[in-house]
Amino acid sequence: MAAKGKAEDSVGGRGEGGEKGKREEKEEEEKEEEEERVRRPSPAVYEVRAYLNEGARARIAVDPEKVVKVAALVVSALSAGHKLIFMGNGGSAADSQHLAAEFVGKFERERRALPALALNCNSSSVTAIGNDEGYARVFERQLEAFAQKGDVVFALSTSGNSENVMRGIEVAKERGCYVIGITGRRGGRMADLVPEGSLFRVDSDETSIVQEVTVAIGHLVAKLAEEELFGVEGARRPKGG
């Protein structure tokens, strides 16, 4: 009888040990699944990553030779005593005054101020013209007042179809200004008004990305112009500097 009892105890022990092993194995699997869930990016992370990748791709697609060409034009105009004029609506208005400030203040180097203005900044002019003559005329009217032959006008429109910007381009060209256009992939009406050599079509249809690349282009132009005008010994200085 004693031998039989020991045998039963032994069988029972093996059973309990097997169940314990299964529980531990299951717990380990659940732990691994939880760790994998934590490691796995959330849908929001995927969305952020996709947006950043799209922005990076659009920036890389910008033609560097065109940036250098526009920077050289800006240097030539400023050296001859001309000025830069920026215009745009909404986010492009903010970009306009941002980029104008890079020239009036500085981009990276301590140096004398450079003449640049954004047409959206004078709220009295914008609202008076908009009220009396219509919003479509807020830029062309100011260009009639400020633009002179040889000035460089930067026209910003993510769609390429902003009526007041298109009218501004026409007046700028009539007055002998150089026009640089920055828009989205499709170009809109701007593509018919600005020669391809002076037109940046950001390779995206997403407004926010077009705006971000617009600032990148403006920063590069400011950087190159500043270096040429002030960065090396013997570089040309703007007229009067």
Q: Could you explain the architecture of this structure?
A:
By secondary structure, the protein is an alpha/beta fold. The chain folds into 2 domains: 2-40; 63-231, Glucose-6-phosphate isomerase like protein, domain 1 (Rossmann fold, 3-Layer(aba) Sandwich). It contains 9 helices and 5 strands. It has helices spanning 2-39, 43-60, 64-79, 91-104, 123-133, 138-146, 163-174, 190-193, 207-231, and strands at 84-87, 116-118, 152-156, 178-183, 199-201. Strands 2-1-3-4-5 form a 5-stranded parallel β-sheet, with helices on both faces. The chain starts with a helix and ends in a 10-residue tail after the last helix.
Highlighted features:
single chain; 241 residues; alpha/beta; Rossmann fold; 2 domains; 5-stranded parallel beta sheet; 5 strands; 61% helix; elongated
